[in-house]
Amino acid sequence: MDQQGHGTPPVMGVAAPVQYGTPAAAGAPYQAYQHMFAQQQQQQQQQLQMFWADQYREIEQTTDFKNHSLPLARIKKIMKADEDVRMIAAEAPVVFARACEMFILELTHRSWAHAEENKRRTLQKNDIAAAITRTDVFDFLVDIVPREEGKEDVVPRALGAPAGDPLSYYYVQQ
């Protein structure tokens, strides 16, 4: 205490302790974010389940195998690119076309979910890259997908690849 009986004044430049509320209140925004994220993940999971249920139903109801979204000649050409493939049965490109279509649909669906998470209505490369890195089934594409450095949704680059190496973006067939 000083001579007049008052407490010592606070030292200039030193902040007095401030109470920001209870520790539970400090964690509330984080918990709210976690809850919102969990709901969003659950909604995406339900949408994927509905997607695959619709795909299964559509496959069961298919009777016309003549119409395809993807050109069978192109699929056949890709299949013949493998030197071990000699002959291709007529139904094989049809099955491959449908499998490719379903693959593209699921990847697009997952990419769109990522775009919506970021409150965008335009699908971008980084959405596709994020969908690939988030889904274990798509791990075979990790080395093929172009990555953009310096963005918040960046896909980690391959181990050992230099930061600015443009060749780290491309798949090299051995």
UniProtKB/TrEMBL annotation:
Compartment annotation: Nucleus
Primary localization class, coarse: nucleus
Annotated InterPro entries: H2A/H2B/H3, Histone-fold, Transcr_DNA_Rep_Reg
Keywords: DNA-binding, Nucleus, Transcription, Transcription regulation
Pfam families listed in its UniProt record: Histone (PF00125)
GO-annotated molecular function: DNA-binding transcription factor activity, RNA polymerase II-specific; protein heterodimerization activity; RNA polymerase II cis-regulatory region sequence-specific DNA binding
Boundaries of every Core Histone H2A/H2B/H3 domain copy: 56-132
CC annotations in GO: nucleus
Gene3D superfamilies, sorted: Histone, subunit A
Keyword hit for Ion transport: no
Similarity-based family: Belongs to the NFYC/HAP5 subunit family.
Alphabetical list of PANTHER family matching this protein: HISTONE-LIKE TRANSCRIPTION FACTOR CCAAT-RELATED (PTHR10252), NUCLEAR TRANSCRIPTION FACTOR Y SUBUNIT C-3-RELATED (PTHR10252:SF106)
The protein's name in its UniProt record: Nuclear transcription factor Y subunit C-6-like
Species of the source: Dioscorea cayennensis subsp. rotundata
